[in-house]
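Need a sequence for this fold. Nothing fancy.
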């Protein structure tokens, strides 16, 4: 699948369009596994290291954390804060 994705992208990052210029391309799921992404060519993006780092450490991490929080809340695992909001606001 990596060869097919690389052939589709050519020598350019699919996010920013800049050439790889000797840098090793990164292969990333457009929709992460943890959010239901499938291991398919359509869900694979070929990115330069900079775009990969930005996507993985910002966008994907936030989306995964939000999905985890929603799942925990729906399962009743997330602890609710015992104090009213007014009291929490003044705490240090």
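Here you go.
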């Amino acid at each position: 699948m990596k060869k097919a994705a690389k052939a589709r992208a050519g020598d350019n990052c699919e996010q920013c369009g800049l050439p790889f210029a000797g840098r090793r391309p990164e292969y990333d799921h457009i929709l992460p596994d943890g959010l239901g992404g499938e291991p398919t060519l359509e869900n694979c993006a070929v990115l330069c290291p900079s775009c990969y780092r930005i996507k993985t450490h910002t966008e994907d991490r936030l989306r995964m954390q939000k999905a985890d929080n929603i799942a925990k809340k729906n399962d009743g695992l997330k602890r609710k804060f015992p104090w009213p909001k007014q009291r929490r606001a003044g705490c240090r």
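For context: The mean pLDDT is 82.
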